[in-house]
Amino acid sequence: MLGDLDTYGFDLWSHTVNGVFIRHLKGENNRNMSILVISQCSFRDSGDYSCNAWNTKGENKYRSNKTTAVVVNDVPIIIGTYTYNDILPTFSVIYFAKPSSNVPQWFKYTTLLVDSSRVSIRNTNKNISFEIYGKKIKETVYSSNLSMKEQIPGTFTVMLSNEYGQVRTTFNWKPEEPGQLFFFGLLVLTGMIVFILTAGVIAVVIKIKSTIDDSNFKQYQRNNRRAIYYAAPEDENTPHVYHRTDPEYEEPSPGHYMEISDLDVGRNSSTTDDNHDQYEIAHDYIELE
């Protein structure tokens, strides 16, 4: 920073990529200079860096900035690898390269592969969004795809290169054997059958338990019923037998009994003459009806 400066200083540096703010960085200030040092640069550090300075003149405060671009040249950077399994697999690699990479090369083990009736190779570039330092940006990236046209088990390698070096990534593929597919299908079918049977058994057990519970509840209700007795009210017009003053039976009256005549006694006394001295003749009575 140069000029007639009363008071001056530096704010934090700003890092942007394609106009998107990424982060602030603190520079090393030395008098009227600010120096920004980035150690261990990678492709994420590419972009524009702005130095923000200020100074005052009297009561006025002025700001200014200066921007510079940082380009990180390196070997291609692999962002992601993917395997798409349909009837036959497709291997895909997405990478970032600056400067641009050479044409990718695919190998089966150590044999170079080219477009043929057995495999297809396709290289494209496109803009995608990805994160750097927690901020999403859009950047041009490259992809290379190897698609099988027939079953070719083995190890496949793609080599990406530019003037700064090369990088490789490997895909392993082994087709599913029919026996394995059959075994897997059998396992799935067995699992479904077991699930259905288990669900059926559980449903039957719940139904039986519900029926037993209902039966026990009804039995409990029957066992807990209390007998209720109702007494007919006493007829007030019917007097009690002991309350009557005129009983329905005839009371005995004096003179209804008579002594048995001496004649009858004498008739019996002939047999008891010998005992006459020992026994007193008893009086017999005949009840008149």
Runs in which pLDDT lies below 50 for 5 or more consecutive residues are 262-272
Strand content: 35-45%
Structural class: alpha+beta
Distance between the termini: 163 Å
How would you explain this protein's 3D organization?
With about 290 residues, the protein is of the alpha+beta class. Among the domains are: about 5-70; about 75-175, Immunoglobulins (Immunoglobulin-like); about 255-285, no CATH class. The chain is about 20% helix and about 40% strand. The strands form five sheets. Strands 1, 2, 3, 6 and 7 form a five-stranded antiparallel beta sheet that branches. A hairpin with a 2-residue loop joins strand 10 and strand 11 (about 110-115). It is flat. The protein starts with 6 loop residues before the first strand and ends with a strand. Residues about 260-270 have low confidence and may be disordered. This is Ig-like domain-containing protein. It comes from Mytilus galloprovincialis. InterPro entries: Ig-like_dom_sf, Ig-like_fold. Keywords: Membrane, Transmembrane, Transmembrane helix.
